[in-house]
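INSTRUCTION: Work out how this chain folds

Token vocabulary: learned, describes local backbone geometry

RECORD BEGINS BELOW THIS LINE
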Amino acid sequence: MYKILIVDDEYELRQVLRETLERENYEVGEAGDAEEMRRVFDSGDFDLVLLDLMLPDEDGLTLTRYLKERSDVGVIILTGKGESVDLIIGLEMGADDYVAKPYNRRELLARIKSVLRRSGRSADKAAKNNDPKTCIQFSGWELDLPHHKLAAPDGSNVPLTMAEFQLLRVLLEAPGQPVDRDQLSVKIFNKELRENSRNIDALVRRLRQKLEGDVNHAQMIKSVRGSGYTILTTLD
């Protein structure tokens, strides 16, 4: 059973979410502010956090960073209208997806299932499906598919968010071939790219930072004018 933590200062909204999630057989925790979130999160092994951007004592952006620095937990931002800038920053800090308020119940559940499916915490499912391809080796790196891990050429582990992992996997499945932003958005977030959205670009920037350090002179993940991105590497 997956454990989901709802972080929102609106009590009524938390109760509606709790009832919705428990009907889907999720185990649910609640927090109404940042202090309570830290206490509840640190006391339980949660698989996903539904995090409101606007909390009374601390903003959701800081909490997104807090969560991602301490675990590989999935984070879905709950955002209201007019919060697009904060949303982009949240995704840059490692949030895996977002849902706009007022949200559609079926859409929210689909987003939750998508993030959990991409999560390294569900790695055992890949083995159960007898997927013969368990890792992708490229330019000295190794992407471990069932365990959601990336090993650097020196053997060190490079932590990835679920969205970063999925982006790298999609690009590696078509090395040297451009993959447009719309395709990436559908494969990573299960939704079409909104007009003028920077979500994919922010995600690529984070992945470039982890692979190469210098995002302004990236040699591995290249932009393709008028299209999207491609990864220039040789599969080992």
In short: Residues 3 and 44 are 9 Å apart (CA to CA).
